[in-house]
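Incident review: delayed structure delivery

Summary: a single-chain prediction request sat in the queue longer than the usual turnaround. Root cause was a stuck worker, restarted by the on-call engineer. No data loss occurred. The affected request and its eventual output are reproduced below so the record is complete for anyone auditing the incident later.

Affected input:
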Amino acid sequence: MTDDELRLLVSQSCKILYDQGQEHFHLGHVSARAPGSETIWVKPQGLGLGEIRPADVMAIDLDGNQLTQGQPLHREMPIHTEIYRRRPDVNCVVHTHPFHASALAATDERLLMVGQDSLLFAAGIGRYDSPEFVVTREQGEGVAAALGNRRAVLLRNHGVAVAGDSVAHATYLALSLERAVRSQLAARQLGAVREMTPEEVRTITHYLDTSYHDALPNTWRYLLRESGLAGR
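Output delivered after worker restart:
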């Protein structure tokens, strides 16, 4: 995948996340790397998720050094660099402050298996137990360790970090995590929650994995259309 293709994908992810309600002024960032590369393309500081164009996306290395000229970087690049350093399978990291998932991060409540969105996180979600901004390599290592081999980590009193093997995958996971938390909140407000059993989770997950091979590309194409990005 070329640098221009990665820059386009990052900008598309930012716009989709904005349109799906994960904006927080100019905060939040998405990054991507080509598999096996140590160059990361990332949303810069000072621009909102909905404003990002491919030319705005900046390149950094795994030490956080900016490799391209343009907008300055967010200070929380260690969230991205240390996840990539620890997880060679990860090619996209999303860090946002989605309203409901961020609220969950301020509690001791676990994510319950209440619907299809929850199933994506059946292996659990990590917990990074500090509200401080992640601006040092040591703090980034802590986030990456809390994430472990999972798909998402909650940053206490802060937000979320989601890791996927592609931009489409990580974007889909970020949106699904917020939907899962919203569903859990609504279920609790309506009555006693009937969580899926571990056996039900395994059965339904197996069915989805074997019967919906095109779910991710179809969802990504839908999200592009929904955000007016199809064909760009």
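Verification: The chain has a mean pLDDT of 96.
Action items: add queue-age alerting; document worker restart procedure.
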